[in-house]
Amino acid sequence: MNELASTPALQPLIYDIGAPGRIGVNLPDCDVPEAELPTELLRDDLPLPEVGELQVVRHFVKLSHLNYSIDKGFYPLGSCTMKYNPKVNEDAARLPGFAQLHPLIEETGAQGAMYLMYELQGWLGEISGFEAVSLTPAAGAQGEFAGILMIRNYHLDQGEAQRDIILVPNSAHGTNPATVTMAGMRVRELPSNDQGNVDLDSLRAACQGEMRDQIAGMMITVPSTLGLFESTIHDVIDIVHDAGGLMYMDGANMNALMAVVKPGELDFDVMHYNLHKTFSTPHGGGGPGSGAVGVNEKLKDYLPGPIVDIIEEEDESGAPLYGYAMPAKSIGRIKAFQGNFGMHLRAYAYIRVYGDTGIRDVTRYAVLNANYLRAKLMKTYKLPYPRYCGHEFVLEGHVDDVEEVHALDISKRLMDYGFHPPTNYFPLIVPEALLIEPTETEVKEDLDAFVEAMERIAEEARTDPELLLNAPHTAPVRRLDEVRAVKELILCCVPALPAAGD
Ligand SMILES: *Cc1c(COP(=O)(O)O)cnc(C)c1O
Known about the structure:
Helices cover about 35% and strands about 10% of the residues. It has 14 helices and twelve strands. A seven-stranded mixed beta sheet has the order 1-7-6-5-4-2-3, with helices on both faces. The longest helix is centred in the last third of the chain and has 37 residues, at about 340-375. The radius of gyration is 26 Å and the shape is globular. It binds pyridoxal-5'-phosphate. Pyridoxal-5'-phosphate binds near residues 139, 250 and 252.
């Protein structure tokens, strides 16, 4: 069933409103000589809507209200860190000196922007304990790809081309195995134990058995996508390093660690950051993102370029001169120019506003908020791993004795209460998973309101399960055929043009 096309609650297409002769603009009288228009480009058969300015404004404002966003309400979408995006970042990004800078401008004409990127590289390195950082990757997944290519090239340079296996725990984000495959390496999945940690026996078996010489490294998320800090992380790192492999940390969950635990100091070799998660640059509407990568001394020369470096300590004004540099053995460029500069700018503003103690507080409040929700909700829903969590935690989305109600139904019903549903059915190793990440930007009243909604939904599941099974009741569209919606995207709603000759 695809209700999108037929639901009356949806507003009409802009093509269906208006009337002949209505117009949204008044052009001034022409005060230059009229020129001939290229007639071959002119057509009068385009079904363009004729609408007034107010109608257009209302149309698009109403459309924007159909959308859900962090500015509208609580958005506990686990793993995605949907925190508030401070408006001061947007002010910074709109400063004309930055916004109007052309990417091909001479380096000497972009010193302010380059200073900003240089500082950001340094701060990201400082926050996570890495030696060097490249800002170029455009997303977490692209940062992963860069990281795994660096590991591959490192082994090639060591004369160990046979090292092509990357170990990946079964709780991993789907991008991890996809990255490994795209980099031409092989994935070897590792099971998790009943604590939610990587099973050390399986890890030892892989690293000390006959595959030992083929181990290129391991990708691991800390805290894991279960929201749990990997309590045996020192052993994990040692075992992989002893086998000659390198350690990749998926840093998408840095909101639980920033300025508290430094992955570089834990002895990770490489990590990506999601500036659009941890560092509050906007996401959720499809990008653009930024997946900067940090590395230790070993991989420094392999970073994707360009990175910003000081090329002359002081020019005549007394300021250093910044330039773009390609690291000696760089894996090359993976994105045009220097990556998504607008995101670097927002992340820079974010870190500047908070400062080092503020950044640490962000982490602390994120972890506090998650544990507050966890402690409240575990009274009503099953918590498969009863441990303190990082910045997020997983519940099982069902209610005792009500078999027909699933995580999906609970999620849909939450929409009626005005909340964005949590991530559901991920991580894959928890049945009916609901992955809940409140972030540090929510106040206690909003967390309590969410708890109350979750408790009422559990009650409704027992007394009136149909209410959940048919939810949402208040959204502009009801249950969609999500599989078909992904496979048959309708990206354009322009009515069909009359066929030629009609
Ligand atoms: C979001 C996420 C990624 C991928 O990041 P993108 O920017 O969406 O490509 C990878 N791993 C984890 C754990 C994530 O949460």
